[in-house]
Amino acid sequence: MRLTREADYAVRIIVDLAAAPDVLVPRRAIQRRQEVPAAHLAKIVQLLRRAGLVKTWRGAQGGVALALPPEKITLRRVVEAVEGPLALNLCLVAPGTCSRESFCPVHPVWRRVQAILVRELDAVTAASLAQPRRQLLQERSLPTKGQPMCEPKARELHAQLVS
After folding, report:
1. Residue 106: which pLDDT band, with cuts at 50, 70 and 90?
2. What is the pTM of this model?
3. How far is CA 103 from CA 47, 107, 108, 110, in A?
4. Cβ(127)–Cβ(18) under 8 Å?
5. 69: buried, middle or exposed (CB in 10 Å: 19+, 13-18, 0-12)?
6. Domain 5-85+125-162 belongs to what topology?
7. Where are the domains of the chain?
8. Residue 156, burial from CB neighbour count under 10 angstroms (0-12, 13-18, 19+)
9. What is the largest CA-CA distance in the chain?
10. pLDDT tens digits, residue range 114-123?
11. Among 2, 28, 33, 63, which is disulfide-ready with 24 (CB 3.0 to 4.6 Å)?
């Protein structure tokens, strides 16, 4: 199994947003930080929005923000938002897809490996992936969720997020 470039970009976008989950991030900032081409960014953000993972706003003050807490967004949800349901082999897409399913010696192996993959992807959250960047922002004494933000700190945070 190989993830597409779009799935990789989707993970990058979600992790970027999870570093500051309560901040509306301009698309251009995500594009620059995560090295996602503009055409891909627009398409992937749309897929993530349809999956209920992000919210978007248009206009000069627009951008992208997480629609859910980062602790609720799993790596599996992000990948499936772009790739569709995970299936290591066609026989795992739906019962009866493969005529050999009932006697194929490899089918139980594919099923077991897929279960492991799904379990591992479900165990990783956007919050855990974004923790190093969140830690960096906190170390710079930037406010986190629920803390009051004075105007200079707000400008400083915005400058870091858009750069």
Report:
1. very high
2. 0.80
3. 37, 8, 10, 13
4. yes
5. middle
6. Arc Repressor Mutant, subunit A (1.10.10)
7. 5-85+125-162
8. middle
9. 67
10. 999 999 999 9
11. 63
